[in-house]
Amino acid sequence: MSELPELNLEAAEKMWRAYLSARSIAPEDAPGYVVECYGDSAELAEELLHEVMYGTKRATSSLAKEYRQHGEAEPKAGDHWVVCDGSGEPRIIQRVVSVQRSSFFDVPAEFAAAEGEGNLSLEYWRRVHRGYWTRTQAEIGCDWTPEQTTQPGEELLLERDEICWPPEFADAPGV
């Protein structure tokens, strides 16, 4: 697998400005946004973005501690992110609809299905996410086990999202 690419921040800002203009939002009144790819490789970024744009993926999950590790704020409802493809180019803007905390063991089956991956089962979700977080935490020198997510501050963040830009991919007009 190849590493994540450098993100085209200039193109992401241009996309963000187009979104704000279309929604008649003044830049000074705009919510903040982040620019990111899904996953930890160019291939995974492409695969997951495709599931968002053309499939059923309307949820994602992360470790709460990942945000502390990277010095970033945890996502919250109303946040936006410009999602880039496996080459670092911006493709869509998503808005966070909701964020809930959960242990690995308490993730609902319907949330796993909303992640839109594999056969949409909870078993599939657990298998691929266990592998993903074990791998990504090991890459930064940390051990990770699902049991850790039962501790305060170590939970998973279960995020629901909707596409709000560009219009041809938006889940609802005017979002």
Structure description:
This protein is α+β, with helices and mostly antiparallel strands. The protein has one domain: Sulfate adenylyltransferase. The protein has helices spanning 9-22, 42-54, 64-69, 109-114, 122-139, and strands at 33-37, 59-63, 80-84, 90-102, 156-165. A 5-stranded mixed β-sheet has the order 1-3-4-5-2. It is globular, with a radius of gyration of 16 Å. The model has no long low-confidence stretch (mean pLDDT 94).
CATH H level: which superfamily? Sulfate adenylyltransferase
Q: Reading side by side through the largest sheet, how are the strands ordered?
A: 1-3-4-5-2
DSSP, total strands:
5
Q: What is the third-level CATH name, the topology?
A: Sulfate adenylyltransferase
Distance between the termini: 35 Å
> How big is the Rg?
16 Å
Q: Percent of residues in helical segments?
A: 25-40%
Shape: globular
Top CATH class = Alpha Beta
CATH architecture: Roll
Kindly estimate the percentage of residues that lie in beta strands according to DSSP. Answer: 15-25%
Kindly give the count of domains.
Answer: 1
pLDDT < 50 stretches? none
Question: Residue-averaged pLDDT, rounded?
Answer: 94
Written as H for each helix and E for each strand, in order along the chain, the element string is HEHEHEEHHE
Oligomer: single chain
Number of helices: 5
Protein name: ASCH domain-containing protein
Domain ASCH: 38-159
Organism: Glutamicibacter soli
